[in-house]
Amino acid sequence: MMPWGYTVPAVAAVIVVVVLELAVLKTGLFRKAAYWLTMAIVTGFQIPVDGWLTKLSAPIVLYAPEHITGWRFPWHIPVEDFLFGFALVTAVLLLWERARLGEEAR
Questions:
Q1: Number of domains in the chain
Q2: Structural domain contains residue 24
Q3: Any stretches that span the bilayer, and where are they (predicted)?
Q4: 54 lies in a domain?
């Protein structure tokens, strides 16, 4: 088994999405205030939901300790969840933005 089997893919997902935007898609999404507002809203909903699912007092979702860093913030949320959340939401928004720009070019 790969040590930190959840951490490594989470970090890789963030890197892939950022490189995809900066080197391939070039939509300019990271320069838009609306994107960062969207990410703040997503994070605002992610914290209570993920916090409830991963709380150490009565977790619904369990993580193998050898596959995560063990860093948790706030309410015992593994930091890897925020990385995957960023990558997932950003990837979807990038694809939507790319499709929108493609439609405008037609």
A1: 1
A2: yes
A3: 6-25, 34-53, 73-96
A4: yes
